[in-house]
Amino acid sequence: MKKIVLFLVVISLSCLCSTCKQKSSNETVVPAQKMVQNEYRQDDIENLASGAEVETIESNSGISEELQEVSENKNSSQDAIEAASKEKDIFAAALNNDLLAVKGFLLNGVSPNRKEPSGGCVLMVAAQEGNLDIVKLLVEKGAVVDCKDNTGWTPLGQAASGGHLDVCKYLVENGANVNAKDKTGWTVLHAAAINGQLEPTKFLIENGARTNVKAGNGWSPLDACRSPMGQTKPQWHEVVKILQEHGGS
């Protein structure tokens, strides 16, 4: 009987030890798993928080820049309108190379193709004075590149006769006719030649201007350059040479 009791006690103790080991093992693993899971969750939270913060900053920065741009545009518009109020009209602003005032007139609804009683357009005035920035602004706002006054003269003719090569280039790049004539048959090249404008003469010829076209008085560009008026210009000899090299007679 004692042997049986002892046997039962041994079995009970063995089962108890096995249970304790299993519990101990589970307690060791579970906290470790929880710790790893918590670590990943914390990293995710930190990353999300960091990303949200950056996105918010960038978004706020974008809004701030946009508001600043709107504010600057508003102030610029107000300045332009104020500048326009100090000029007689858009023609005076173009003549005086007052870009801000020209902007103001356009903002107030003045057409970029506004004409004077003589038929001259604003673009002609800007081209005549070599005001490239105003020329660009007017063309960008819809000014007709080959607008003509009552004599048939164009902005390119004005720019060429004044020696404004940069304006000539811009107008031609935007479709100006290098062989445009006025009502007397005078061409853009005639205008450049008689005024001894060497660089515009070269540029016009390179871009297709005809060297032998005759005006109503029978003059070619070469004749115009050799005329008494043409010979008063410092570079008239060089202009004659260029015209002759390209078939002028």
Structure description:
By secondary structure, this protein is mostly helical. The protein is built from 11 helices and no strands. It has helices at 2-85, 90-95, 99-107, 122-129, 132-140, 155-161, 165-173, 188-194, 198-206, 221-226, 236-245. The chain is elongated, with a radius of gyration of 42 Å. The termini are far apart.
Can you give the helix content as a percent range?
A: 55-70%
- Major sheet details: none
| Nearest-integer average pLDDT | 77
Number of helices: 11
Low-confidence stretches: 1-59, 66-72
What is the general shape? elongated
What's the order of the H and E elements? HHHHHHHHHHH
- Structure class: mainly alpha
Per DSSP, what share of the residues sits in E-state strands of 2 or more residues? Answer: under 5%
Q: How many strand elements?
A: 0
**Rg calc:** 42 Å
Distance between the termini: 147 Å
Which helices and strands occur, and which strands form pairs?
Layout: H1 2-85, H2 90-95, H3 99-107, H4 122-129, H5 132-140, H6 155-161, H7 165-173, H8 188-194, H9 198-206, H10 221-226, H11 236-245
Helix pairs in contact: 1-3, 4-5, 4-6, 6-7, 6-8, 8-9, 9-11
